[in-house]
Specification:
Strand order of the largest sheet: 2-1-3
Number of strands: 3
Order of helices and strands: EEEHHHHH
Bound molecules: zinc ion
Strand content: 5-15%
Largest sheet: 3 strands, antiparallel
Number of helices: 5
Helix content: 25-40%
């Protein structure tokens, strides 16, 4: 079951929620710390990068990612390889992000085009 990573705007704490793909977007999610529904999902691309580390070892060489911010096509290719290596259903935004990267869009362009996929890198509260 996929884990969804959320951040609470009210108490600034982050939390993980297990949801099936059927539940995601349908089942109301509230902050387990303060009960607020004023929450947002954290960036999927970060979650993908932090994902199943064992199977991502082939991609764990940081030098592979060095400079990729300036090279969206290569980043898109790497993401696509990663998705294949995981062998799991990726979030709907994943393919869209990869498509846009491979089309040469910058991370900033993609984040503004896909508000749900972006997200500022807020520090963890714990
Ligand atoms: Zn909260």
């Amino acid at each position: 079951m996929p884990t969804y990573d959320y951040l609470c705007h009210d108490c600034r704490k982050r939390f993980d929620i297990f949801l099936t793909y059927q539940e995601y977007g349908v089942k109301p999610v509230t902050c387990p710390h303060c009960g607020s529904s004023h929450i947002r999902r954290r960036a999927p691309r970060v979650r993908v990068l932090k994902g199943d580390e064992a199977r991502l070892q082939a991609f764990s060489d940081p030098s592979k990612f060095a400079g990729l911010e300036d090279d969206p096509r290569t980043m898109g290719k790497l993401f696509r390889e990663m998705g294949g290596a995981l062998g799991e259903e990726m979030p709907p935004q994943f393919n869209e992000i990869v498509d846009r990267l491979e089309a040469g869009q910058s991370a900033e362009e993609i984040e503004s085009a896909l508000p749900d996929a972006g997200g500022e890198a807020l520090p963890d509260a714990d």
